[in-house]
Amino acid sequence: KEWPAFAVIGLLYRGKNDQGQIPALWGTLDAQAHALPHRPGAAFGVIDNFDMDQGIFDYVAGYEAAPGADLPDGTVLKEVPAQQYAVFDTTLADLMQTIHRIYDEWMPTSGFRRTTGPEFEFYGPDFDPSVPGSVMQLFIPIEDAS
User: Fold this and answer.
1) Which of 40, 48, 77, 110 would bridge 118 by S-S if both were Cys, CB 3.0 to 4.6 A apart?
2) How large is the average pLDDT for residues 87-115?
3) pTM of the predicted protein model
4) Which CATH number do you get for residue 55?
5) What pLDDT score does 90 carry?
6) What distance in Å separates the CA atoms of residue 120 and residue 81, rounded to the nearest whole number?
7) What is the domain extent for residue 100?
């Protein structure tokens, strides 16, 4: 699926998420959402700058930035380029299992390979984290493997 370029305004965490740091980041973001200049309707978790040796990465929890938005203290603006993505529906409970299935099963037989650029989680306007089974989408940047 082609997805246009966009920017996310939010909070940055760099690490492993081995102690629930990302859910805590979302909790902090929710408390500050009213102060962020963003477009309503969707939230994004942008994953980038992987360090495979250490198992760490950047994660920006945020919202689509309003054009020309000023950054409140403590926030970041993460640019996501337009590119082609493989899109997978999942739930928060199944997210890690879905990621493993994508890279271990789907990718090797798909005719695509992961390309440079961030992955992102898309939480649409109907997503509700308090409802088990609420569907989100995972976008993986891809290119033709041939």
Assistant:
1) 48
2) 95
3) 0.91
4) 3.20.80.10
5) 97
6) 11
7) 2-144
